Amino acid sequence: MRKYQPKGAPLVIIDLALLVVTAALTVLMRIYLVSFENLMIALTCLF
User: pTM of the prediction?
Assistant: First the structure.
């Protein structure tokens, strides 16, 4: 690993970016699963 740098801004930015990406992915997965469940319910109701 590299030597410790006094400026921690890049690490903080990377951590925030990772948090945003993981949060967006979880939200998208939840929306996808909910819409998929609603689609299956609609299909079972129709047929």
Answer: 0.55
